[in-house]
Backbone:
């Protein structure tokens, strides 16, 4: 079964607006067992719209469009669909009655131009719009079913669920459901992860497994289909188990969970607390931890020790240590971690000091050089990262924060060598 | 001139991820006089990709693709483009050298599978990627120019501007330019701003002015076209001058500059320093300040005083004041601001304490109640914000951080009552 989308609007092709209907429809259709193969975004041009409807109806069993159903001159979907199907436009009295009733409910006279919204291609039927003036269209063109929905996301979503889904089921199009599960890991590069999982990502494997990378976090995306959600999830389970067995401690969480969520989960499961001392990450670790609700039992706080005086005044790092080793050094990272742990009475102290750039680098301490410090009751240790030199500042800050949190997470789980 | 886009990735057609490269490319190409007619989003399927490249190259003069250039098995762009053009793949030694050099700079061995990224269709040339492993491709197919860029947005944007734009100009494809200028302000609602600018936002005005709101920041977007960038910018200037005159101190910056950039500019222009004490914002203010390069002369650091002990231990807030007034109170906000100012020897101390939710609210102190504290040599003051109760935690944190930074900015500029 092939489904495809036509997303219509010149405000989209000009780049002024970001379309989100396409993603929503892709996700909803996939869940109905109707995966989308193509989405075409196009402007308010009649010839382009006719060609797009023709091409889509010629190669897919289901075509869903968004936009172009309003009352203005640049709303061309009715026209384009009729011309693509080789039929004329006719007035639908039910649609006209609905539009008139909507204006009556709002105590406003119906502008003449809204009558155009009651026109539909011959042979089509309408999809009622419970909240707006634009009715949708439901039609067979060649062997394809075509559904036209308005571009307003709230209207599109309500009509999809209330009007289109029952018609898809009645037409025997929507059957099986497709469900996805995402497992996120950190600490290996994308190609290293794939090298350890060629059996999982092989083309044609069932269930299908994809790998994506975002800001250093690698995600396995598993998708399976079934007669219902429970069946599809059950098909995913053995693959998820392989990933959990093979990547074990590298896994930070599922869904949208990233390293910070993994660290907080490890803190909660071990009953430990952590305090952070941040130089080059400038508060990003504290921010990522405190975005999560309910962390106060495990996170007393932190220090952003940007200036050397902050390192000595707030963390008790000796001035002569900074003078002898430099602020970006393993010794200072360890002293920061010890200092913040002691000052805040935490079980763990985690520190980051480095050169985030783009300025401030030197041949000995280039942009991207970062030292992490980790202190607990038994003492402190440090770790060196090289995250530059060509990466932008915000990437270096983000990666450094993730490496630091992941290191603390592994320490909590007893997984450090 | 017809341009079109191919946006490749099964994580997009499945609805798991929202594409933003398409909008960015549409906007940038429109600015080069190359409006996009079609954007096709498609999955990692070889036949679909070959067909999409063939169709695009057959009807458009410029085709830009995003994604599918990584080292894994589901990265099919190289293959698909070669098959669409009817040629084979060859190794590009320059590309291989670049990939090897990137791994060498990162002191990591190059996995064998990354060699595949140095393959390009016969007759193509590479688009160097300054920050990632995936080189782009630049090729003529029939009469169309085809540019393949990686899907990572940061890499795509850098390569578009640095590598593709010069080639488009050299090929005589880029013509009249459309230029935009964005002026950002904070402290008024979108409808209040619009009510003060009906002359600017009138339809048909030249240059065109739009208003958008994002996370409390209101942006005027002015667009004009010209034979070159200088001419287009000159057309924008008188409108920008009206906005600056009318909104004066509300303006925090241009382009991507937001409240943090406005605060740092005010610190630099006045030669003052600021230290921050954050409870409910949890490091977000420090993070937003330290995202900006070169702030160490104006920002010594801060404290994330999430637990009450952190407020007393690191900021010297008296325990009995917290017990008497509560951690979320004007008195504690002022004491936090005074404490961080003194401890870090800064000119200004800025503090935030509040209830970010979703839990922890009470009838007297509901979710969204936030107190700001601001201290300087003459003493401390506080301000009450009500940002909830129905907003999510991350929105309350973001708005509180912006209100705090904007308050400090206005204080530095001598604009507080």
Residues:
């Amino acid at each position: 079964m092939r489904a495809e989308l036509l997303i219509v609007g010149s405000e989209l092709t000009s780049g002024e607006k970001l379309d989100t209907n396409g993603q929503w429809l892709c996700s909803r259709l996939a869940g109905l067992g109707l995966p989308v193969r193509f989405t075409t975004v196009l402007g308010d041009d009649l010839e382009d719209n006719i060609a797009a409807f023709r091409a889509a109806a010629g190669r897919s069993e289901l075509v869903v469009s968004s936009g172009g159903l309003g009352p203005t001159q640049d709303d061309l979907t009715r026209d384009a669909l009729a011309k693509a199907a080789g039929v004329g436009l006719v007035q639908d009295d039910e649609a006209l009655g609905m539009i008139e009733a909507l204006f009556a409910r709002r105590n406003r006279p119906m502008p003449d131009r809204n009558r155009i919204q009651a026109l539909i291609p011959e042979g089509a039927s309408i999809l009622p719009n419970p909240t707006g003036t634009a009715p949708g269209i439901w039609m067979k063109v060649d062997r394809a079913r075509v559904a036209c929905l308005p571009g307003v996301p709230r209207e599109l979503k309500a009509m999809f669920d209330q009007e289109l889904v029952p018609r898809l089921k009645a037409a025997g199009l929507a059957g099986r459901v497709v469900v996805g599960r995402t497992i996120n890991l950190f600490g290996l590069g994308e190609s290293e992860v794939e090298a350890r999982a060629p059996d999982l990502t092989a083309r044609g494997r069932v269930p299908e497994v994809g790998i994506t990378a975002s800001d250093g976090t690698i995600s396995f995306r598993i998708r399976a289909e079934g007669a219902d959600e429970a069946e599809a999830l059950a098909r995913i389970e053995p693959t998820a188990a392989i990933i959990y067995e093979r990547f074990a401690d590298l896994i930070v969480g599922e869904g949208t969970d990233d390293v910070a969520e993994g660290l907080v989960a490890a803190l909660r499961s071990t009953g430990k607390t952590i305090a952070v001392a941040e130089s080059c990450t400038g508060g990003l670790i504290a921010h990522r931890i405190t975005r999560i609700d309910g962390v106060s039992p495990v996170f007393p706080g932190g220090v952003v020790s940007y200036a050397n005086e902050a390192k000595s005044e707030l963390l008790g790092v000796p001035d002569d240590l900074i003078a002898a080793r430099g602020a970006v050094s393993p010794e200072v990272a360890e002293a920061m971690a010890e200092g913040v742990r002691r000052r805040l009475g935490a079980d763990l102290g985690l520190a980051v000091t480095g050169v985030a750039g783009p300025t401030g680098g030197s041949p000995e301490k280039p942009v991207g050089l970062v030292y992490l410090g980790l202190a607990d009751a038994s003492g402190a240790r440090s770790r060196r990262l090289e995250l530059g030199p060509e990466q932008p500042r915000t990437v270096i800050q983000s990666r450094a924060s993730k490496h630091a949190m992941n290191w603390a997470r592994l320490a909590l789980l007893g997984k450090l060598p």
